Records
---
Amino acid sequence: MDATPEILGELSLFEGLSPERLVVLAERCRISSVNKGEHVFRAGDPGNGLYAVVSGLVRIYRGSPGGKEQVLHFIEPGEPFGEVAVFQGDAFPADAQAMVPSQVLFMSRRDFLDLARQDPEITLQMLARLSLRLRRFVHQVAELSLKEVPARLAAYLLKELEEQGSNPLTLPMSKGQLASFLGTIQETLSRSLKRLEGQGLIVVKGREIGVLDLSALQSVAEQGR
Amino acid sequence: MDATPEILGELSLFEGLSPERLVVLAERCRISSVNKGEHVFRAGDPGNGLYAVVSGLVRIYRGSPGGKEQVLHFIEPGEPFGEVAVFQGDAFPADAQAMVPSQVLFMSRRDFLDLARQDPEITLQMLARLSLRLRRFVHQVAELSLKEVPARLAAYLLKELEEQGSNPLTLPMSKGQLASFLGTIQETLSRSLKRLEGQGLIVVKGREIGVLDLSALQSVAEQGR
DNA sequence: AAAAAGCTATGACCTAGGTCAAGTTTGCGG
DNA sequence: CCGCAAACTTGACCTAGGTCATAGCTTTTT
């Protein structure tokens, strides 16, 4: 399916582009639907362009021979993914899979580089975007090796609370997926939630989590090691 | 101390720039000496520009309240560091410390952005550079959470063997520092080395490590979980 | 070369958290 | 509204690897 200028305008990637430019770009982008569980690309696939989530939710992850998986990020509507392969190395470093029925936009490397040439602002925006991602990875690596599961969980809940702004926050994914993002497994996550609940810091009801004691949760999150 | 065009020409960051351009840039860059153990910047410091190692060795790491540290990368001569703060967020996300007496070059954000504007090629090179770093982090996150220490160690040795090209390879840092890079501690690294040695895969003599059984080492490195 | 300071090895011990195995609950397709 | 498949919880168990303590070794300083 073809993209429309309206859809493109919603993507953070194209923020600030003129309506005329969007019309031209719309012709060059393709939108496709992917079913729940379907892969947009696999690690090692040649990357001929970049993607963005139009609707739905996509997870980027790496698997291991033993079957365990580590989620690197969840991509929400408006956000691009798979950019790394456009600028370096050409093979995707991880798998991308739709977690719910989703629509994804594709733009070829050629078209993106053309756009970048005509609109250098885009390049700077991309640098800022990759820098942000780098910053997040720095955080993720440090958390994985320096903190224990309850601390990582607490930090996640605080971040989510901040972003959602509403107090009983809602997990945007299954607990198993969250565990995989936090570098652990379902069982351990379940026990950690229980523990925080037992300490009176949170209250859990399905995917809804209410934060009862903000400052105590913060001190759990800071526990390093 | 002022930078010279010759020094700048050696930096991967300025690869491909004309000699005239290098002369102009040399006036804008400052080179300073840092002692072993001295910090170039600390996490949270405002980032007003980027750095590159001219000589010596710099490590980028994050500490935890409990005193443990996770090394994110070792920066060798010619390589830039601290770029992330130039494009995003303005505070450095980690600490940078000289591991041996070193010389580092500094270029202000302003000067770098001026250069980027005049020479768009630099921007694309920077995109490629950040993409490579992102790719490495993807790898590091996955290794930390999916593999055990001996597997991470084996993977490191294979990479180092490849890069150095000589068989008894030489560790470029202390074993304690290597442990911190691999997300573990001295003692565990020591035992892992011993184990690989006991299995006849490597032979260790101080910082020199000879690889005896390449394919066995590869299969240890691939063990996921 | 002696002394101080950092590195490395190794042993005894302990715990966070992964594995395996039942259940139980939730939510979706028919 | 039913039934089946995920998703989730809970318990018993086990192990990788972190902690603590000690001692040998190597390098730099004086």
Note: Residues 39 and 97 of chain B are 4 Å apart (CA to CA).
---
Amino acid sequence: MVMPDALRRFKAEVFQALAHPTRIAIIDLLGEKELSAGELMEKLGIEQANISQHLAVLRSRQLLVNRKVGNQVFYSVRDRLLLEVLALMRTYFQNHLTGSLALAREMSSENKRMKATRS
Amino acid sequence: MVMPDALRRFKAEVFQALAHPTRIAIIDLLGEKELSAGELMEKLGIEQANISQHLAVLRSRQLLVNRKVGNQVFYSVRDRLLLEVLALMRTYFQNHLTGSLALAREMSSENKRMKATRS
DNA sequence: ATAGTATATTCGAAGTATCTAATATTCGAA
DNA sequence: TTCGAATATTAGATACTTCGAATATACTAT
């Protein structure tokens, strides 16, 4: 029996939300601790409007929640289960990165550092 | 320290591959057993060219492998870890589906059946 | 009230994804 | 070798995503 289409669309939307390097970086950072939009902007070194747009995507798919404190808006991951999914994916990526040759070349110098750190 | 950009792009590509309802359906079906392109086409009821294109996406990101048997091409999931990721996501979706109101409405009749089946 | 800071939204250009229809390739059987 | 079946690729139309620039909103402090 085939999964209901509505559920497949829902899943696809969540994956779609994760399908951008900047948004992956955002979720990884927020997995450690809550951060304001401005702090994220600083850490990622991208335009204010751009991060705001990416946050809007993650909000609209309900991967993030936010709370206002005065002038600032602090974001965090809505459900830590999502972080477990990402952790599992990390294992997956480690299994297959070396098979991805063009990438391996591009990353040869960053490789050792990476293995020592969390992602 | 921020994750290297090349790695973030690689991850994003994998999520991108999962970011389509038809492709999610394909992976779910192949999680049970190897199937030919034609069998997938039949089960999903979509155009031949279309499924072939979706299979090409999944192949190019190396989520699937294939073997030829005469005229046919059989596909299977390359790494079962990916299926574990999808299984975890199922739990995630169950936690949040009910919060997604428009969807809940759309699915009200399929709901009980769904909980009884694997997805 | 006004100015300043933090964040969100809108707009338009450029790029990417998706679909169908048409065509190409590959293989086995007659 | 030609035919038919299974699959892949290409082409072109349409829809979606992404970006930076400009503008809007919301809140604080003066």
Note: Chain A has two domains: 1-79, 80-119.
